[in-house]
Design a protein that fits this description.
This is Peptide/nickel transport system permease protein. By secondary structure, this protein is mainly alpha-helical. 71% of the residues lie in helices and 1% in strands. The protein folds into two domains: 28 residues, no CATH class; 220 residues, MetI-like (MetI-like fold), CATH 1.10.3720.10. The longest helix has 37 residues. The chain is globular, with a radius of gyration of 25 Å.
Length: 323
């Protein structure tokens, strides 16, 4: 018996050593195979990683904190890119604006706000849309009709106009003293409420397909409550399209935040996002200080385009019909 047992243990250990590890399985997957064959996606992922790392480590990378007035040098205002100030001797990679604020540092800190608003708005819209879509698709009847009619009405308006409306209503409710302090929260809620519809429609359609399958019928037969069926059984099977929409929606949320800030209803100049920097730079576009507008605009373009390309690739690779 001991010989048989030891032989079985040896065979089990040999099988475990021959089993490929997690990294090897990832490298051999269809997703990584598709990733390697698309150089545009590789470049987009590298640019996205650089932008995210720059925003995350901005306090350690940026030469100055553009949010701290004590670190600004007004005498260095309008210093040209790739030059040294004649007054303080400071070197500015991308120049300075009218307040002596280093444009490179402002882009790094502005990217943090844009990404924070974008991620939070997408998460808010994803949670709201997924919850309403699950409930509407599973429950059916008048709740489904009510939620979908609200979604249809909201789809008749452009999302940016809906975000402007929601932003104005929320700011009208809040006291004026809280407008700047709550600017980020108001932006997140406004963009999230304007984008939840696409998540709800996708989840509702997937839920209506899944709820007629045998495993859902079996869960009903054994008496599981609806909330357990929704969370434990239905939700994991409808998340794939939601994650793809969320990746693409991140780029749209970043652009929406930049649009609102550019229109003057987003982040205040004391806490600039990329949209605020572009709005400030527009005032100097025809006066010779072209770098104040150009570099924040390029940063926003690279960030939004890279994330959008990754989202398009992820949508194609996760859709078996497009393989």
């Amino acid at each position: 018996m001991s010989t048989v047992g030891s032989r079985e243990e040896q065979e089990l250990r040999a099988a475990e050593t021959q089993r490929p590890g997690l990294l090897r399985r990832m490298l051999a997957s269809d997703v990584f195979y598709s990733y390697r064959r698309q150089p545009v996606v590789i470049v987009a992922s590298l640019l996205t990683l650089i932008m995210f790392a720059g925003a995350l480590f901005a306090p350690w990378i940026a030469p100055q904190n553009p949010f701290n007035p004590a670190e600004l040098e007004l005498i260095d205002a309008f210093t040209e890119p790739f030059s040294t100030s004649d007054f303080t001797g400071n070197y500015y990679l991308l120049g300075t604006d009218s307040q002596g604020r280093d444009v490179f540092s402002a882009i790094l800190y502005g990217s943090r706000i844009s990404l924070l608003v974008g991620f939070s708005a997408v998460l808010f819209a994803l949670l709201m849309g997924t919850g309403l879509g699950l409930y509407a698709g599973y429950r059916g009847g008048w709740p489904d009709a009510l939620i979908m009619r609200i979604a249809d009405v909201q789809l008749t308006f452009p999302s940016i106009l809906m975000a402007l409306l929601i932003f104005g209503v929320i700011r009208g409710i809040l006291p004026r003293s809280m407008h700047q302090e709550a600017a980020i929260i108001v932006l997140i809620v406004a963009i999230g409420l304007s984008d939840w519809v696409q998540y709800a429609r996708a989840v509702r359609g997937a839920t209506m397909v899944e709820k007629g399958k045998e495993y859902i019928q079996a869960a009903r037969v054994i008496g599981l409550p609806p909330r357990i069926i929704l969370i434990r059984h239905l939700l994991p099977n409808v998340l794939r399209p939601v994650l793809v929409i969320g990746t693409i929606g991140l780029a749209l949320a970043i652009i929406a935040e930049a649009t609102l800030s550019f229109l003057g209803v987003g982040m205040p100049p004391t806490q600039p996002s990329l949209g605020t920097l572009i709005r400030v730079g527009q005032d100097y576009m025809f006066s010779g200080e072209w770098w104040i507008l150009l570099f924040p605009g390029l940063a926003l373009l690279i960030l939004a385009l890279s994330v959008n390309l990754l989202g398009d690739w992820l949508r194609d690779v996760l859709n078996p019909k497009l393989r």
